Request: fold
Amino acid sequence: MPIKGLSDRGLSFPEIGNIRKGIKAKNASGVEYPKEVPYFVVQFDEQEEKRAALFSSKYGSQPTEINILLPFNEIERCWDCWYEAYVAGRMIARSDGEIFLYLADYKTGRLIVQNSEPRTPHKEVVAEYTNSRGKTELVKMRTVGRLKIVIPELQSLAYLTVHTGSFHDIRNISEQLEGIKALNGGRLAGIPLVLRRRPKKISIPNEDGTRKRMTKWMLSIEADPNWVKKMLTQMKHLALPGNGLALLPEPENQQDAEESENIEEYDDPEEVEEMAEPEGSTDGEFVPAEPAPKTVKELWPTEAKVTYETAATFQSRSGKKMVDLPLDEIRKIIDTREDARAKAPLSDNAQMQLDACYILVGLLS
Reply:
């Protein structure tokens, strides 16, 4: 039996490192602050030297895109995003934007909210904190997103966590994961994806209340182009009648391609129809095209006692379908059946076969 809450927590993989969007920099006063860079900052755990070397040999020291897989089908198991607040590196609050899921007094450690109880509305400022320099700061909730990814080149079922605090990243990743999952019938695990940094101009508030536009290197998750091509072909296949790929053939030569392009330039469909050469014409002289011959199925009389679908199941002694036999062989079957009927009544199935043969003779004669 599992230990409740300890050994029954479901599938998981070990975490072997973190991927961030920036580095720690220092201002003129020597105070550290996070500085964004246009590449991924990948940090492996100290004991992961071999995997770090594998990653470096593939992507170098400043990668802007990484091949990834997601370890689970459920978005919430791969990607979680919250409002959170920290004091001295310790989380003191977590919220979903409506209510607090967790809230603690950073001075005493007393839990105010745990597992969303008691129900407490979300607020932006959760505490006041006096830092080591004696300056009092407001502790505010901020957006935090974490994405668990598997890098196939590492050849290991272990994941790295991608961190972001950008509202725009969180919205983009959430929408992209939903779209990819919908395209693949509700499955995410194992899809070949690419995690990229994309430059994008966004509006950022200034301290005086005004706003400015800056270029930020946002996160983007994109499916591998070859996988997307296969999925779109499959979707087109399933959408067509009979699941058939009745696609137009490619032009056989350059002249055919140019002619098709010229027709597309005209806006009036009637004008295009007048310009098109009639089917069956030769050197400008119109020759009516012969209608395609109808099949046996199309000619089968609707009032017949035996339907074409039933007749199509009948076989001769050689194992061939009677509807595909030549006329002389069908006549031989009729003679055999008639001889048998002269001696004794035919069974219902034999009589239907005989009726089908007479219909076939009438259609093929």
The longest strand covers residues 32-44. Confidence is low (pLDDT under 50) at residues 244-252, 254-288. DSSP finds ten helices and 13 strands in the chain. The first helix runs from residue 49 to 59.
